[in-house]
Structure formats: structure tokens, C-alpha cells
Amino acid sequence: MDGVILMKVVLKLSGKNINPNKTTFLKPLVDLWQKGAQLVLIHGGGPQINDFMERMGKKPSFVQGLRVTDQEVMDITEMVLSGLLNKTLVGMLVQHGIAACGISGRDAGLFLAKKHTIEHEGQFIDIGWVGDIIQVNPQLIETLWGNRILPVVSPISGDSDGKSLNVNADWAASQLAIALRAEKLLLFTDVPGVLLDPLNPDSLIRDLSASDIPLLFQKGIVAGGMIPKLQMIQTVLQGGVEEVFIAGGASLELLDQLLEGKSIPGTRVTR
Fold first, then answer.
1. Distance set, CA 4 to CA 29, 99, 186 (Å)
2. Predicted model pTM
3. Local structure of 82: helix, strand or coil
4. DSSP letter at 204?
């Protein structure tokens, strides 16, 4: 990337896209940071949590795409996300010469959350210690930025009693982007973007505006897990973020082109 990039960027990586044996996949982030951007890296870790659960003889279970999180699963989730993966990413960034600091939503009250509730056919389903963020205090992020330290954030959050809650990393990234008044929210996840046909990766929609999203719902073009993602993106754009980009992890290699306004594999959604 040429020149200085002065913008706030929240970038989310799914656990599927984290390869602890290959530090080069983080090079585009390193370049962005070194150009002067105020960058936050927030990460998931679903596959890694599943792996640890299975090692401990527990079978992962999901309701409406959310992990059923009893106390033992909560302990495993926090250990993997806020411990193993978070510090692995910090170590990889340090190898690139970046001053990085690993934190979770619990640190300095970054994320205040409450238990998530699911209603199905008039019945409430208890999925355990799963949370929704109700308040963001970005002071710690801004303090780190002020000292040119790159924040690496685990989405584990705390409730008003200090109890850990398992928060979806996409949701956490979206709330953080709004609170920081970020120009861009970049979601590198396990889907290639918004597809006209979920079974056909060639049906990728490259560009959307916020006004297009309700039409996609009305016409039944999007379904399943993409519906809450697009609803989240609507909220982010309404909250003041200028652009949201969602793509598979391979597109991270083309981050410089994305920020230059070029089209790369994925879906760019603007206000």
C-alpha cells in the first residue's frame, strides 16, 4: 500500500482463518498498521473450541447458530479464545515487529453484556452463558492506540455481576466498530460473502447498499445464517460506519486492494 492510511478499521478474523503455523497470513494487517491506520483485530475461534471440547469428551451443540454454553463449555471457550488463540495472535504480530496487546471484552469493561434469550414457538430456550453486548467502553482501545499498540480482542464479555459470557465475534466486532466510529468494518469469516444462491459460490454479490438489504429479505434471496449477518450489517451502517466488507479468509491477502477501492472477492456494503 502506498502512502499513509488515516482511518479507523475494525477487522474480524474467524477461527477458521487463523493458522498458528503460518505467520504470513497476518502480513496485510501489519502493512495496514504500519501505514498509520488505527486498527483493532477481533477474533473468533469456533473450530478450536470444538476441538478442545471433543478432547474433553463433550459434543458441541448449537441452537440457531449459537453455541450451547454450560459452565464447563464457558470455561473452555474463555480458555481458548482469551488465552490460547488471543496470545497466539499477539505472538505472531510481535514476530512481525508490531507492539500488540491481547485483551478480552472483560478487560476495563470493554464490553458489558447480558444473557441472550431465544424464543421458539412461545417457549424460551436456555442456551446457557451466551451474551448480547449492551454497552461498549472503548477507552482501553483508545489508550492502546494512543501508545501505538495494536489491540487484539477476544469477544468474551462480562455481565453486570462480572460473570463471563460467550459473545459472537461478529456481533462484538460490529458493536465495537460503532462505538469507535470506525470508517470500515472488515469481516473475514467462513463464508465468501453474500450469495444469490448459497450453493453456488459464483453467485457472489460484490456490491450492496444498505437500501438493498430489505429487498433481499423480501425476495427470499438470502436465508439461514446470512440473515442475521445482514441484519447486523444494517445496524452497523445505521450506527455511522461507512462500509462493511464480508468475505472468506483468502481475501485478506488482497486487503491493500480493498482499501484502495478495488473490487476483490467478497461483498462490500455501503450506506
1. 14, 19, 19
2. 0.94
3. helix
4. B
CA atoms of 112 and 109, how far apart (whole Å): 6
The angle subtended at Cα 135 by Cα 129 and Cα 136, nearest 5°, is 110
* Extended strands (E) in 68-172: 100-104, 111-115, 118-120, 123-125, 131-136, 150-154, 157-158, 164-165
User: Maximum distance among all alpha carbons in the chain?
Assistant: 56
**pLDDT tens-place string over residues 177-229:** 999 999 999 999 988 999 888 778 888 999 999 999 998 888 888 877 778 88
d(CA 24, CA 194): 27
Torsion of the alpha carbons at 166, 171, 173 and 175, rounded to the nearest 10 = -110
According to DSSP, the β-strands at 62-63 and 123-125 are unpaired
What are the φ and ψ backbone dihedral angles of 122, each rounded to 5 degrees?
Answer: 80, 0
- Residue 79: C-alpha distances to residues 18, 30, 223 (Å): 16, 26, 33
Question: Is 131 in contact with 116 (CB distance < 8 Å)?
Answer: yes
Instruction: Please state which CATH number belongs to domain 8-270.
Output: 3.40.1160.10
| 3-class DSSP assignment, residue 177 | helix
Domain boundaries, the chain: 8-270
* 92, 100 contact by CB (below 8 A): no
